[in-house]
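Severity: low
Component: inverse-folding endpoint
Summary: output formatting inconsistent between runs
Steps to reproduce: submit the following structure tokens with default settings.
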């Protein structure tokens, strides 16, 4: 028996809802063998309103992890998540190019959910220069889209979102998906896709109330896993949308501070259709 394989280059979320934990759960649900290169450990302080503490991994160790997987095993797709320093961003991008990775999905994480400050002011600059150009698909949220596009404020209208997507595409990404979700007061949850030729709305049911911790990790990992499985780009994005929608539908509260998406949701949906 053989399995398709994917590598996530991302951080560890101690609570289990985001980061490599969410990535591996998602890949497993979609029948892909997931492997990891850990970039940072994120811990939460239960005595200080779940304040996030970020502990980057040494770049030498990250490089050894990446080489272990890409040189020693091989993959069908790579997904990047939290890359907390410019040096780590440059390393990840260089390795994607060095190994000729075609299915690279970039989730340009710049802050922990619930945190207001960017991980590092130079992160956006490094992503623009190194990481965006190697992305087959990049999935920024509204804040990340603002930073990558170099805008003065976070996009809040459809035209502003489209402009942000266009500017990010000009940096070299093949496909840009700006994640809007249920924000901005629309009746449906949606994201905006731009491929250099046209804009498309990726609409889905708006689920309320919902817990969304790890949602971005889950969405991008589902796309990466689907590409690894041999699906076309359009098919992979559609599976990603369906996967995250069901994960949010079955989300739950973990404690008073955090509620993760539920990675078994998509499987439950498929079971009802069989």
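Observed output (run 2 of 3):
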């Amino acid at each position: 028996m053989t399995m398709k394989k994917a590598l996530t280059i991302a951080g560890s979320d101690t609570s289990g809802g985001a980061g490599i934990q969410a990535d591996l759960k998602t890949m497993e649900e979609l029948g892909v063998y997931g492997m990891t290169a850990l970039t940072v450990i994120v811990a939460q302080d239960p005595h200080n309103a779940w304040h996030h503490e970020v502990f980057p991994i040494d770049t030498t160790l990250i490089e050894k992890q990446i080489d272990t997987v890409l040189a020693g095993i091989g993959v069908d797709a790579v997904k990047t998540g939290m890359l907390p320093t410019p040096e780590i961003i440059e390393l990840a991008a260089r390795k994607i190019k060095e190994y000729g990775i075609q299915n690279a999905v970039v989730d340009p994480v710049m802050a922990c959910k619930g945190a207001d400050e960017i991980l590092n002011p130079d992160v956006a600059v490094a992503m623009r220069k190194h990481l965006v150009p190697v992305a087959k698909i990049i999935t920024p949220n509204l804040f990340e889209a603002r930073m990558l596009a170099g805008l003065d404020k976070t996009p809040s209208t459809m035209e502003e979102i489209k402009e942000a997507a266009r500017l990010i595409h000009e940096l070299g990404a093949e496909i840009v998906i700006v994640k809007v979700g249920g924000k901005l007061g629309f009746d449906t949850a949606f994201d905006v896709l731009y491929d250099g030729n046209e804009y498309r709305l990726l609409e889905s049911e708006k689920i309320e109330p919902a817990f969304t911790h790890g949602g971005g990790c889950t969405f991008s990992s589902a796309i990466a896993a689907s590409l690894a499985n041999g699906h076309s780009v359009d098919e992979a994005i559609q599976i990603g949308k369906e996967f995250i929608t069901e994960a949010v539908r079955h989300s739950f509260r973990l404690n008073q501070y955090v509620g993760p998406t539920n990675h078994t949701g998509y499987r439950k949906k498929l079971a009802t259709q069989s």
